[in-house]
Amino acid sequence: MKASILFFPGMIFHEFSHMIACYLTGVKVKKVKFFGLNEAYVIHENPDALRSVIITIAPFVLGNWIAFYFFTSSFNQLENSNPLGFVFLWLGFSLAHYSFPSFQDAKNTFNSFKDFYSFRLVKGNLLIRLIVLVSIPFVFIPLFIVLGLMLLFNYFYFLRLLWIAFIFLFSFNQVSALTLMNSFIYSFS
């Protein structure tokens, strides 16, 4: 709740990204609540599997891309002693903080893929069934793993903070950020 007040631009942008993705993919938006202490949401028609993925990852892609821009701009502003740099830092942190899919976002995508696969396995001809079965390990399972990993950032706050630090460092010095991330990953092996 405190994060939603402090970083409200990120929450608003998260829902705005879903809404933009809906419009770009032709999915009708029924209702939008951009900000709330307990929840914000976009209610839309049920999309097919591909559109659902696009709608789900839109806040992550757009939020981190624009957070990178805000972080980069903040360095330029602060270098010139412009206090606007602190505003850019806050906006970048807010957008990166709220960039991860929520449990409901992931659930919507999972259900769309489940419906896609189950319909084709039941109603498809033999060739379609075979193609669907072969595609499961290459499409459905990786998507499930990626969404699951992204959900970890919602449940373990320190991971979200590490991600924000990575985006921040990456906007300042890409080589150092990648080296640091590589060292962090290899420290677990």
Question: Can you describe this structure?
Answer:
With 189 residues, this protein is mainly alpha-helical. The protein has one domain. Helices cover 78% and strands 5% of the residues. Helix 4 crosses helix 7 and helix 5 packs antiparallel against helix 6. The two termini are 36 Å apart. 29% of the residues are buried.
Number of strands: 2
SSE sequence, one letter per element: HHEEHHHHHH
Mean pLDDT: 86
Let me know the largest β-sheet. 2 strands, antiparallel
Separation of termini? 36 Å
User: How many structural domains does the protein architecture include?
Assistant: 1
Binned strand content = under 5%
From the helix content, strand content and strand pairing, which structural class follows?
Answer: mainly alpha
Range of helix content: over 70%
Dominant shape: globular
Main sheet: strand order: 1-2
* Number of DSSP helical runs: 8
Instruction: Extract low-pLDDT stretches.
Output: none
Rg, please?
A: 19 Å
